[in-house]
Amino acid sequence: MRESDRSPSLTELLERCAGNDRRAFAELYAATSAKLYGTVLRILKNERWSEEVLQEAYIKVWQKADSFDAGKASPITWLVTLARNTAIDQLRREPTAANDGDEVIDLLPGHFPDGEQKLAQSREQEQLLHCLKQLEDGRADLVRLAYLDGLSRIELAERFEQPVNTIKTWLHRALKQLKGCMS
Questions:
Q1: Per-residue DSSP letter, 175
Q2: pLDDT digit string (tens) for 44-58?
Q3: Contact criterion met (CB below 8 Å) for 52 and 100
Q4: Is residue 58 a contact partner of residue 24, using CB atoms and an 8 Å limit?
Q5: Please, what sign has the CA dihedral across residues 46, 47, 51, 57?
Q6: What is the pTM of this model?
Q7: CA of 92: how far to CAs of 5, 88, 95, 166, in Å?
Q8: Which residue in 65, 110, 131, 182 could disulfide with 17, CB within 3.0 to 4.6 Å?
């Protein structure tokens, strides 16, 4: 493969962004915006607001590209963390903004579960709660904080006073145990 046929890695793009390379920034945006938008939307639960916050996150990417350290995190982890933190900061500053503009959703026909579906959901929730109780001490809290509250691995490491890799291992094992219990 010729060098010109090879697309640059995210690390290379971030390095070029640190040097104010606008073309690299455009390529970085094209390669990562869908993932980052999904991260922000999952936190804010409002499309319009998520688009605005995503733009703010990319401004931070442009401004902080020179602080990226490939020895500390992968480029996508760094980008997701930056976007996630931007969304959380916005949510803390404007907690009511998440509902702005969602009045249209209230007018759309919804799907309401019937009794059988509600019963199945209730059983799944009971099974999940049972399985969470089967986890080692603290692991249920770890899973809840990571997947329900959206804490990053770094935040979890600080909270549990453990290295990030230990947190990743604990989460991996806990999810594996939950999966086995749920099936």
A1: H
A2: 888 888 999 999 999
A3: no
A4: no
A5: positive
A6: 0.52
A7: 44, 6, 6, 29
A8: 65
Number of neighbouring beta carbons within 10 Å of residue 53: 25
C-alpha–C-alpha distance, residues 134 and 130, integer Å: 7
Q: Summarize pLDDT for 93-119 with one digit per residue, the tens.
A: 876 665 554 444 444 444 556 666 667
What does the alpha-carbon distance between residue 61 and residue 37 come to, in Å, rounded to a whole number? 14
How far, in Å, CA of 51 to CA of 137, rounded? 39
Helix, strand, coil percentages for the chain (3-state, nearest 5): 75, 0, 25
* Average of per-residue pLDDT values in the chain: 82
Tokens of 85: 């933190």
Residue 106: its pLDDT value, please? 47
